[in-house]
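Standup notes
- DV: blocked on the single-chain target, sequence here:
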Amino acid sequence: MIRLNKGRGGKSTGLMLRLIEAFWGGAKEQPEENPLQLDQKRPSRSLKRKNRLGNWKDSAIHSFFFANGILAVIVLFGIFGFLLYTSIPAFREIPVSEFLTKKIWDPTSPEKSQYGLLSMMVSTLMCTAGALIIAIPVGLGVAAYLSDVAHWRVREIVKPIVEILAGIPSVVTGFLGIVLIGPLIAKIFHTGHGLNALNGSLLLAIMALPTIISISEDSLNAVPSAYAEASLALGASRWQTLIRVRIPAALSGIIAAFMLGMGRAIGETMTVLMATGNARSFPHGFLQSVRTMTANIAIELGEVPYYTTHYYALFAIGLVLFIMTFVVNMTADIILNKYQQREQ
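- DV (later): unblocked, structure below
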């Protein structure tokens, strides 16, 4: 401390010292920090290395999934581009209106080749619609039974059996349609044979059931249990709770299951090739033999001469089938988005 003598100028000097202390905040000694505390405040090199490694892993995983998404889009556009490129030569020889509206498909006619796709389009939609009419109620009923009614022991037995159905080869399913379901249809409806649209619809329904059941059950199990508990607390029965609470709450996933089952049915080849009779005439009922678009491609592509109008017309059929599937999936996405927006 500075000692000041009282006397002339002492008061003014003390006043100046107080002003200096007030301006500079006083001269206070700062405590010395412990070196250990300084080490704790500074991040260690190993911690920095771990953070850097973690950031690198996150960026690598993000890049991996982004690349997979881009690859899927590229493959989709690649398939569409290839089908479009190989279909253009056919449309140079065949008017698009004639290709889509004519009923007769006879590329090897000695008089005039005819490339009418309407009969096969109707046959494909008929088999798919028949399969959905059978598979949707059965699949939803089995899913509701497994999720809400069945004992856990029964569920552990039935669920694997349903999933095993998805692994049965389509050739085996078609063979069963020829030797088992076909004769049964012929006996019941008194037809000459059972190779018709009804046979194909039954087989496609069996093939679509595992997809519909599995996804519908997962959607029902994903509904919060509080919904069912609140419904039961209000006096509703288990049946009312299932129909009016759980199924509406899981409707978006159930619709997705139906759409995936439809995609499974509309793109099937070998089963309908073996079990529908492959008649190229325009169908007027489910008891008539039909030929689907996929079956026609499988039958004729191996024997057609390359780089002919017939050859390119088969790729045009594939393009139409691709567009039909795309429209179905796009319509399902629009319906799901509207339903989810209405729920929110």
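- Follow-up: The chain has 14 helices and two strands.
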